[in-house]
Amino acid sequence: MGLSHSDVSYNDEVTNASPSKVTKNSSSSPSIEDLIAEATANGEEENESLDQKAQRALECPCVADLRKGPCGSQFSEAFVCFIKSTADEKGSDCVNPFVALQNCIRAHPDAFSKDVLEEEEFYD
Questions:
Q1: Is the pLDDT of residue 62 over 50?
Q2: Which of 33, 60, 71, 102 gives 42 a disulfide partner, CB atoms 3.0 to 4.6 angstroms apart?
Q3: What is the CA radius of gyration of the chain?
Q4: From the centroid of its chain, how far is CA 56?
Q5: Integer angstrom CA distances of residue 9 from 4, 12, 39, 73, 102
Q6: What is the dihedral of CA 39, 45, 47, 49, to 10 degrees?
Q7: Residue 3 binned pLDDT confidence (cut-offs 50, 70, 90)
Q8: In total, how many domains does the chain have?
């Protein structure tokens, strides 16, 4: 939730993450932060509006599993809010969508990798 621009700019690490690693049973799944950074980088076009950037980021294959899962609508809402955020601390104006996503993850723990569930506990 409190990712800053610097958190999203480590594309060298993230670009090499394979979308196929985002499976439920994978032992080396990328972190949520890695996926957000990769998808955000996917939405980086100089002259695009925030709406266009958010849509392009949502189309990234790296977040396809999250969009299509049981918490897809909550993920999409929180993610789009984060992309469009203009708050000084990027995403700090997206508390409600992220709380809804967190609640959904708790309600559907079997749909998420152990890594995602451990990260979710970290944010409590």
A1: yes
A2: 60
A3: 14
A4: 13
A5: 9, 9, 11, 26, 24
A6: -10
A7: very low
A8: 1
Residue 91: per-residue pLDDT: 93
pTM of the model: 0.64
Give dist(CA 23, CA 1) in Å, integer: 22
Q: Which amino acid is at 57?
A: A
CA distance 91 to 110: 27
pLDDT at 21 over 80: no
In the block, tokens 């899962």 appear at 69
Query: Cα separation of 88 and 1, whole Å?
Result: 13
Provide the mean pLDDT of the chain: 74
Q: Where are the alpha helices (DSSP H) in 45-94?
A: 50-58, 64-68, 72-84
Residue among 2, 12, 75, 82 at smallest CA distance from 40: 82
Helix (H) or strand (E) holding 13: helix 11-15
CATH number of the domain bearing residue 34: 1.10.287.2900
